[in-house]
Amino acid sequence: MTGFDAEMYRxxxxxxxxxxxxxxxxxxxxxxxxxxxxxQALTGYSAAELIGRNLRFLQADDREQDGRHRLGxxxxxxxxxxxxxxxxxxxxxVFWNEMWILxxxxxxxxxxxxxxxxxxxxxxxxxxxxxxxxxxxxxHQPTAVAIRDDRLTGLFTLPYLEELLKRDWSVAQRxxxxxxxxxxxxxxxxxxxxxFGRAAGDSTIRRVAHVVSGCLRRSSDVTARLDGGSxxxxxxxxxxxxxxxxxxxxxxxxxxxxxxxxxxxxxxxVSVSVGVGAVVPEPADSPASLLEKAQKQLQLAKKSGRxxxx
Length: 310
Known about the structure:
The chain is 37% helix and 23% strand.
């Protein structure tokens, strides 16, 4: 951009309210080489105290967090990822660090650094400040606890998914790569509830949600629950054919649960219908239009007999 020089870039990062960190990817210890004032204010540590250290020290001895393992896996592969971690400021207070990590490549395609964007997600996600490591057992993953206003499944909430989709949409648009959305419904859930009761229905929703989210296991994939037995998910980098295959796998794996459903008009077990939409975003496109496309495909799957992906 004309007139937008390195000094202006520096000022942009320096004045950002979001914490920005640069980490050396070539050093196995991945030490911090830069931390902007926003990150220093977030953590309470000065740049001098941060530079040269691996940011794992912000977790103190609170290491049993699912996000740590997903973050380590993404860094090892040189991939981008989003995680939510319990971190500890210099004064010992806990905060929920919502971070987005991006690899930076040189002209030869080698990952030289990782850029980290960090913010305190506690207030925005309405996290109960009493939810500290002392009140969370190892069985409760931090991501699920922190953002599950829907306490039934532990999945992301729809508003949070929409926010992440907007962010990944911009990346996909810039890099001209596909992004896929899945709309999933449990078939005849109302009849299942009428037969076995709401508690049994809730148990089924949890089991189906676990199976569906398990079909999308990359750190960039996101799954949320809308309401009832309706789920929504998105996955960057998948074209229509790939996404449709994953939708079919979702349907197959739910059938494999063999949850008895005697009143289903589809088969004698619980099943799901899946609508799939995928697009390489153009300027005229929007995340909302892709969500709508997936919902239309879901209706098509239902009209075609349910228990399938379309």
